[in-house]
């Protein structure tokens, strides 16, 4: 290229930068180019290699565990005309559009029952088999591809689950080969997917862009959490008209819904904003791995002193004076169930030395309680039947957390009735409450010591309303992101048990 042509090209690029900056500085709202892509897969499947190949980074030659934390979180260069990702270049001076891409690893396998039995060696064998998709024999390649395709189709036979699929096509790629044609096709598809998203080029106040850039800089500098006062100062010191209090709240809610930060608008959590949510993932992982008292953890208990030691460790000393906030955040998410007990005389809260952690309980109920106590003569029951074909385990764990925070676990034949997806609590001397979940429903049974006719109606009604309201709150996380209706999203219907304890005896509440 001649010197004159290079100068003309630089002049054209400079003019484009000037026009872009002028548009940004003179308009109240600007288009937002924002998107995220999540990559999930089995352990050691090569997710990091795939991501690094897609974004043009150096592909790792040796496996390094990411422990489920983000592989890449930052800005990528995106060519607007060709609508393609660009590899990072030191001599690239064009005006970049920020495309945020966060890649998370997921440790769940497609078939959970098989995955739980696999050892590390079997995982390595799976990876080796996956890498053998590219032998010289094309017939063998075709057979392996058809086998994988058939296995994936079996996972999406349910129509409701299948409706979430955007693309029916499968890409077979060699993530270790930069020149692989499948990689280029996949990159083109992801680029198109970003551009076709309704939120691409969506107009936002330019102050939103400024605040997001400032928070991204602070994350790059190693900050994890800011106070609301810090956010207010950043907002006031920007070069444009500061956002009003209402607009700033809207910005924080939008960023929270996108997963870019964590902002909980409740009276005891709204004073702090987690600008790098990956530290919460670190925290959750440490709760499972950092404690030697495994016997307590297997029974779903975590001592507060152990949690304090974890916060004081070198790994989490960066959280500093925010440990109380993170405790409250874990309780808010129902990861930890705070046991709330009060003195009957003074009404003051009694401090309990441990939390319940229902999501860590894997032992199933093998007692005779269900057979001996849950009978048609002694109990009444109702069920939350979900509209979807599968209830996420997190919903069950969170509802059990709510129950444990209010009532004591019942002891039957010297065994605490707290198991995976099953708990029994004592309401008073005569009434017990059972919560049991399966793949499509959560069944609640109220048992009287003698017979069901003696169950106090006001007590039964209060318990039902309490659990229903909590389940509403928990289910809001799973509401439809694109729902335009302002009405509350309710993913379940409530039915009551009539006459017997068989599922066929469930009838709608409105028909009672």
TrEMBL record:
Superkingdom of source: Eukaryota
Keywords: Hydrolase
InterPro entries per record: P-loop_NTPase
The EC number(s) this enzyme carries: 3.6.5.-
Region forming the signal peptide: none
SUPFAM superfamilies, sorted: P-loop containing nucleoside triphosphate hydrolases (SSF52540)
Biased composition (Basic residues): 1-12
Top enzyme category: hydrolase
UniProt region (Disordered), positions on chain: 1-20
GO MF annotations in UniProt: hydrolase activity
Protein name, UniProt field: RHOT2
Source organism of this protein record: Mytilus coruscus
